[in-house]
Amino acid sequence: MTGDLKKRDPMRPFLGFVVFAFLFLVINSLITPAVHFLGGEMAANTIPLLLTGAIVNALALAIFEQRQLREIGLDWITGSSRNLFAGIILAALAAAAVVFLPMGFGKVHFETLPQVETNWRAVLFTLMLLFCGAAGEEMIFRGFPLQFLMRGYGSWISILGTGALFGAMHSANPNASSLGLLNTAGFGMLFGYALLRSRDLWFPIGMHFGWNAMLPFLGTELSGLTLRLAGYKLVWNSGELWSGGKYGIEGSLVTTGILVLLTLAVWKVPVHRGTLFLLDEEDLSSEDPPQSLLS
C-alpha cells in the first residue's frame, strides 16, 4: 500500500491508535506491579512509562510501518541536545515565573520545613525518575499515536485531541481540579506543538522534564503529588483559584497565563528541525526500511 493510499484511508490512523492503546494497557499492567515491588511507588509511577512507551511504540511501528523506534523523533543527531536543553530551560523558567511573579505581589512565600533535609543522592535519583516519566509520557502521547493521527487527520485536530486525553488521564491524580486538568490538557497541546515545530521528541521531552523537575524545588505539588526535595514549602496568601489548592500551582490561573506566554516562546525560540518518518514520509520514501531496532 502506498503512502498516498495510507493517507486517504480514514480508518487506518484510528486503528493504529486503538492498537497502540490496547498494547499499552496490557504491557503496562504487566510491568508496573513488578517495578512497584522492586522500587516502590515513585519508581512505579515513572519507570514503567518509559519501558512501556518504548516497547509499544516499537511494536506499533513494526506492525504498521516496519520502521525503527528512533524514527518517531528519538534520533540523537546534530541539534538534538540543543532542542532538549532549550526545552528544559524554557519550561524551568516558566515554572519559576509561576511562583516568583505572585511572590513579587506578596501573594506567596516560602516556609521552612525543619524536619526535611536535602539529600542530594535522593534528589538526583528523583530527577532521574522524573526524566524517565517525562520521556515515557512523551513517547506515549506524542510518539506513534499523535504522529500517526496527524498524518491521517491533520496536525491541529490531532494535537487538540491527544492534548485533551493527556489532561483527562491526570484526573486520577490526587486532588485533581477542573482548572488543573484544563491546564494539564493545555500542556499536552503545547508539547504537541513543540513536536510539530522541532520535528523531534527531544524538545517536548525537555519541556516536560524541565517543568516537572522545577516544581518540587519550588516547594509546590506536582500534579497533586508531593515531592519534598528541599527543606521548604510554598505557602499562598490567596484562594485556590490563584494557588491551585492541593493539586498545586498547575491548578491555578497563574499557570494558565504562563502557559500562554510559554506557547509564544515555543513559537519563537530557535530549534533544530529533525525528521519524523510518520510526518515526513515523502522525504524518506527512497530509504529502505531499517533492519535493527537500536541502530
Task: Spell out the key features of this protein.
disordered N terminus, 295 residues, two-stranded antiparallel sheet, 12 helices, 3% strand, mainly alpha
Q: Average pLDDT across residues?
A: 89
Classify the helix fraction into a percent range: 55-70%
- When the domains are counted, the total is 1
Low-confidence stretches: 1-7, 284-295
* Gap between N and C termini: 26 Å
The spatial strand order of the largest sheet comes to: 1-2
Subunit arrangement of the protein: single chain
- Give the structural class: mainly alpha
The profile of the biggest β sheet is: 2 strands, antiparallel
The count of β-strands is 2
Element string (H = helix, E = strand): HHHHHEHHHHHEHH
Could you walk me through the main structural features you see in this protein, from its secondary elements to its overall organization?
The chain is mostly helical. It has one domain. It contains twelve helices and two strands, in the order H-H-H-H-H-E-H-H-H-H-H-E-H-H. The protein has a two-stranded antiparallel sheet with strand order 1-2. Helix 2 runs antiparallel to helix 4, helix 6 packs antiparallel against helix 10 and helix 7 packs antiparallel against helix 8. The N terminus and C terminus are likely disordered.
